[in-house]
Amino acid sequence: MKHKINLALQVLPQSQSTHPYSIVDKAIEAIQRSGLKYQVCPFETVIEGSWDEVMSVVQEVHEICYENGTEKMMTYIKIQSQKNEDVTINDKMEKYQ
Fold first, then answer.
1. d(Cα 67, Cα 53) in Å, to the nearest integer?
2. End-to-end Cα spacing for the chain
3. Assuming Cys at both sites, which of 5, 12, 34, 75 could form a disulfide with 81, CB separation 3.0 to 4.6 Å?
4. What mean pLDDT is predicted for residues 28-54?
5. Within a 10 A sphere around the Cβ of 41, how many other Cβ atoms?
């Protein structure tokens, strides 16, 4: 897939020793470091990029969560793509900003 996609990522880390919010903060920092366009929302973070780019970020987020105290985790992913066009966050959000 050559075009940009949107991937909504929600991680629900579980840990006996670390508050989930601090683990999610580390996950968001990994997304920020990716250099991809993203938007943090209350329940998930939307990431924009190529298929390979966003899937690489998903893997990085999982690794970061486990490195920071996650013992087990549920992950929910939603993907929007189009065959011949980019999907952008701005296309959906610009009228609300």
1. 21
2. 29
3. 5
4. 97
5. 10
In the block, residue with structure tokens 């013992």: 71
Give residues with Cβ within 8 angstroms of 79, minimum separation 6.
Answer: 5, 6, 7, 8
CA 19 to chain centre: 19
Select from 64, 89, 88 the least CA-distant residue to 13: 64
Q: Is the dihedral of CA 48, 94, 76, 18 positive or negative?
A: positive
Dihedral pair phi/psi, residue 57, rounded to 5°: -65, -40
Instruction: Note the pTM of the prediction, 2 decimals.
Output: 0.92
DSSP classification of residue 61: H
Sign of CA dihedral 53, 55, 56, 57: positive
**Residue count (the chain):** 97
- The tens digit of pLDDT for each residue in 8-18 reads 999 999 999 99
Radius of gyration of the chain from Cα atoms? 14
CA gap 87, 26 in Å, rounded? 26
